[in-house]
Amino acid sequence: MNNKWSYFVNFKLIFLLVFSMFINVAKSQNTLQLSGSTCSGNLRLNAYLESKATLKSWSKDGVILIGEKTPSIDCLLYGEGTYSLEYSVEGKSELITYEVIENAQGVVDFNLEPLLAAGVTIVSATNNSTENILTWNWDFGNGEKSTSKEAKVFYKEESTYLITLTATSESGCVYTASKLYTWTYKK
Fold first, then answer.
1. CB–CB of 147/135 below 8 Å?
2. Using the 8-state DSSP alphabet, how is residue 26 labeled?
3. Which domains does the chain have, with CATH numbers?
4. R_g of the chain computed on alpha carbons
5. Which strands form 92-100's sheet, in the order they lie side by side?
6. Rounded to an integer, what is the distance from CA 175 to the centroid of its chain?
7. How far out from the chain centre does Cα 68 lie?
8. DSSP state, 27?
9. How many Cβ atoms are within 10 Å of 98's Cβ, its own excluded?
10. How far apart are CA 181 and CA 164, in angstroms?
11. What is the helix (H) or strand (E) element at residue 38, kind and residue range?
12. Mind listing the pLDDT tens digit for each residue in 41-72?
């Protein structure tokens, strides 16, 4: 009986030690995260600091943003660039940075993969934004359309087609990518 009690106490001590190490590691994760979007009019950079940390200053491209003392900053106000947050923990200064790019160009893109089968082309979309894309709408330039992220299109005539992908994000932003695609019959 005494032996079982000893194992239980040892297990409990080890569990508490590991758990407290996990909590300390989780608390010391000081990060910056981008939220919102340019087109929604709410693009913010948010600081998540451990409880012992004190925010000292924000800067953009090396210039201190006077008056910014909250853990969240409006990036639409200052524009794209390299944002830095200086904070201190127990008297020691630390710095974290984040590159903010507002440009909506290149947020969505797609690849074309012609198959050996006559006229069949596979298209697949990529999302390069911080937002989730809710809808994908393809126009293949030959009258065919699709709402899948990845789609197949069949071209019957040798020609150059304008393929357009329109994607809508959670916040209602609409992004478009277009490419010219020349299909020729391969014998």
1. yes
2. H
3. 28-100 (2.60.40.10), 108-183 (2.60.40.10)
4. 26
5. 63-64, 53-60, 81-89, 92-100
6. 15
7. 25
8. H
9. 18
10. 10
11. none
12. 777 888 998 888 999 999 999 999 999 999 99
